[in-house]
Design a protein that fits this description.
Layout: H1 6-12, H2 22-29, H3 34-52, E1 65-79, E2 86-87, E3 103-104, E4 113-115, E5 118-120, E6 129-142, E7 145-157, E8 161-173, E9 184-196, E10 200-215, E11 218-237, E12 245-252, E13 257-267, E14 270-278, E15 283-291
Antiparallel strand pairs: 1-6, 1-15, 2-3, 4-5, 6-7, 7-8, 8-9, 9-10, 10-11, 11-12, 11-13, 13-14, 14-15
Length: 292
């Protein structure tokens, strides 16, 4: 395992190279067993899952029939609050932390922390936000239903393997059954999976109701729904003087329900939108798309 979690950023920023962080991430997380390793990485699971479930739509309007094709780039931004930059460690390998001890998470201070002669790793990214960007294609509609897909694949090396992101979603118009309503309403379900070789295996789902109201070139839109995300991690614990062993654990994103409010500018074949997502792990999303 030579370049684990930095590959997430490579993918999410459309394969922009950030290889300078790769060795730091490996060294940092491999110092922990599953108990403290999960606490170190939990903020990543929260931000990553919340980002994955963002930016899918900017209108709930779905024609009953006719060809509809739209391609764009969706960008998401998850703020990282101060409380997610540190964690309270649990005892491991004979070390019992004093009450009130705090260590950096993956998003915390990059400087190592030395306690009682033991050096603990700093964060991989000392940052206030975690970004994501993905391409997205939507096609429809049949009986008021459209289909959305997100897909990226990128080969790293023989040790890591391939990074892959595949997401899909289905929406069905509810407005077609209620023609007197001034709102466009649809039901939606999205599922996404993400993997980095055998190191990372993540998934996210969202199910909810979308609504929008169009006024000339502007569209107000929003949604409410249930979401769930998981991030599976596998790495080698490699402490000097200790026998290496594989650590595996699954993390669950903290979000369960989210509410979205947004505004879109519709210039016929060009659409620009931005929205805010209310949930324990908040996100800001936006996108630019072309279609008809």
């Amino acid at each position: 395992m030579k370049k684990p979690l930095c590959i997430i950023t490579v993918l999410l920023l459309l394969c922009i190279a950030v290889s300078a962080y790769s060795q730091d991430i490996e060294d940092n997380v491999s110092r922990y067993t599953s108990a403290n390793g999960s606490k170190y990485l939990q903020p990543l699971a929260d931000a990553f899952g919340a980002n994955l479930n963002s930016g899918f739509f900017c209108s709930a309007k779905i024609p009953t029939f006719g060809l509809h094709l739209e391609f764009g780039i969706k960008a998401m931004y998850a703020p990282i609050p101060a409380e997610k930059k540190t964690f309270s460690p649990e005892p491991e390998f004979g070390w019992n932390p004093d009450p009130g001890t705090l260590l950096p998470t993956i998003f915390g201070d990059e400087e190592p922390v030395v306690i009682a002669g033991i050096e603990f790793p700093g964060g991989a990214w000392d940052t206030d936000f975690f970004p994501l960007a993905v391409p997205q294609l939507t096609i429809g509609s049949v009986l008021g239903t459209d289909f959305t897909v997100r897909y990226i694949t990128y080969s790293i090396d023989d040790d890591i393997g391939d990074i892959k992101l595949f997401g899909w979603g289905l929406r069905h118009s509810l407005s077609q059954y209620m023609p007197l309503m001034f709102l466009d309403i649809s039901a939606a379900f999205y599922h996404q999976s993400f993997s980095v070789g055998d190191i990372i295996d993540a998934s996210a789902v969202f199910a909810g109701i979308q609504a929008s109201y169009s006024l000339s070139l502007l569209t107000l839109y929003g949604s409410v729904g249930y979401e769930k995300s998981t991030l599976g991690i596998s790495y080698e614990y490699d402490e000097p003087g200790e026998e290496p062993f594989i650590v595996d654990f699954d993390l669950t994103g903290e979000n369960n329900f989210r509410t979205t409010l947004g505004l879109a500018l519709d210039l016929y074949i060009l659409k620009i939108h931005a929205d805010y997502n209310f949930a324990p792990q908040k996100t800001i999303a936006g996108g630019v798309s072309f279609g008809f």
